[in-house]
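One record is given unchanged without comment:
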Amino acid sequence: MRPGLKVYNSLSKEKEIFEPLNAPYVGMYVCGPTVYSNVHLGNVRTFMSFDVIYRYLKHLDFKVRYVRNITDVGHLQGDEDDGEDKISKRAKLENLEPMEIVQKYTNDFHDVMAMFNILPPDIEPSATGHIIEQIEMTRTLLEKGLAYEVDGSVYFDVEAYNKTNHYGKLSGRKLEDLISNTRELDGQDEKRNPVDFALWKKATKGHLMRWPSPWGDGFPGWHLECSVMSTKYLGANFDIHGGGMDLKFPHHECEIAQNHGATDEEGAKYWLHTNMLTVNGQKMSKSLGNSFLPSELIAGSHELLDKPYSPMTVRFFMLQSHYSSTLDFSNEALTAAQKGYTKLANGLKLIGELSYTEDGAEKNEKAIKQIEQICNNCYFAMNDDFNTALTIGHLFNLLKKINSIHTGNLKYSEIGEEVFDKMISTFKTFTVNVLGLVEEERINSKSVLNILTDLYKEAKDAKDYDKVDEIRAKLKDLGLVLKDMKTKVDWAYEE
């Protein structure tokens, strides 16, 4: 294990040496998707960033328990505890049952994660599977005087909590400012304070997703599920909690208050947040018409895209920036990423063909020192708050040495077998296992077959029967046969 890993903690506002809690595993919780619509690119960036963190911690020989939830409860629109249930609204639009909507978009989410080579978590709990636990945490907060019930709804009492704690410590807000800046919202007159948030909400007539509770039929508040599931699977104290920057307030702030109020512990030790996406310098949003889905990016079907970009190109593009920095999409940046990814992919292909051979060259101490330094730099970069951008730069430097071996400008014996193996292993480990970049299949088999049938026809027209027989024999070895038609040459699977 390599010591010295530093992470930026949104709670302390500083980079801290990563010191896991004394548990049999590193506990990591990431807020998962709300499954009522297609996955957006902001989701992809967040889960890709934590995928790399998960991969790197495992590479450092930590035993990691990674929990990523699925929000399948029909929470209300926004954070104001009023409005229309998102999943119910979608169910009505598509004429489906709410849980059909949940399953449909959960499947879509998993497909997108697999497309970008994002590993599944160790545990993927759902909000609907933990209704009992959410009712119990609500009951606990009521008993401690940190919540109150009004006509079947239960709210967290932020002022009562703030008497002995700091509500707003994660986002840097002060309760007095929040209260003075909070506008009065329709449907919030039953709250004692406009900053209070729902733990349990009474289901109105026609609300599709509802469960019985001590306070009547209703459904849990949005913030409650993550407090319940993180503590259930990782304990009252765990290591990392993450999500997009938009979740820092109010969602994660409310989680801290709930966790501390219910368990006297704050939950996570380290809070990590990914930054937002922009397109040509503007914030990505549906209202601006510059928001595109992952499928549109891969197909190149959005009007802002000049061409399709492969999943690994997009992954490379996202990892070129630090997870906490703004990421700007443009055709120029994506095209540059395509070239960068292709270089690494060619490197992966090349190292599969290289094999150490004693060639009698004298040891080159300078080259050995350079290679060992570059290998160490990959660790230094990832140890600096999981800096994938710097890591990629070091991998390109390592690829230059690998290419020098391939071209013969650097002899095998100049660096020795041990350093050669370290160079190859480091390049492959960081590219594939840590960054999750793999070689993509770019060859279209039908296009290749069309080329072969054209070559076959040319050979036949030229009466080069030896070449005709050679092409037929090679295709037969692949289980294919050529058929001479009146107007063209066709192929079929051999029966």
Summary: The chain has a mean pLDDT of 92. The CA atoms of residues 305 and 331 lie 6 Å apart. The radius of gyration is 28 Å. The chain has three domains: 6-274, 279-434, 445-493.
